[in-house]
């Protein structure tokens, strides 16, 4: 039996730039607010993840994305580092999320000398200990562009709020690490369907910096939704 997780999905319309004479179609951006609207986050940063193939934005199932920031430049996730997890992050075998990607889990993890502190909304399937619950850790946006009815591009944006509110002794340490993240911070990204397919930028357990473009068709398994195209990081 599948367990169904429901979240409130909000949407806002974008006005297309660089006119297309009516031939282009730009979808609304859907986003989860976690208590704070996407455009209300003014002290944070965006992680934009472009994909080669169209994502089924309306169903996560077991899909998940992990972005790891290596703040001390030693090519591993250890003390003081930050990790962002989005999608179905429960790792529970019988949990399937039948909801939009923008309504899935949104977790910011902080490594405190080997202990993982998880900053997350009080929603979804919460497993483990050391959870710091907040209503404004960040948001997820999805953008789809089509042309003459055909797929052109799509991407996810993870917007992290550096000024999130929570009462916990480790919050200052987490914010300190979040404030250090920039486009120059080494990162690794994994996109998995949670079953048999995955792709990485730049490669599994390898870190890179700046805007990175990945090769097509280099994913494992047969689910081409996980084929990562590029990642970029910018302050807002």
Descriptive overview:
This protein has 236 residues and is mainly beta. Helix content is 4%, strand content 37%. The protein has one helix at 171-180; strands at 10-12, 24-26, 29-31, 44-51, 64-69, 82-87, 105-112, 115-120, 131-133, 138-147, 150-161, 187-192, 198-201, 212-213, 228-235. The strands form two sheets. Strands 1, 2, 3, 4, 10, 11, 14 and 15 form an eight-stranded antiparallel sheet that branches. It is globular and about 50 Å long. The termini are far apart. 37% of the residues are buried. Mean pLDDT is 83; it is low at 1-28. This is Lipoprotein.
Shape, please?
A: globular
Distance between termini? 42 Å
Instruction: List low-pLDDT spans.
Output: 1-28
| Proportion of helical residues | under 10%
- Give the domain tally: 1
SSE string, helix = H, strand = E?
A: EEEEEEEEEEEHEEEE
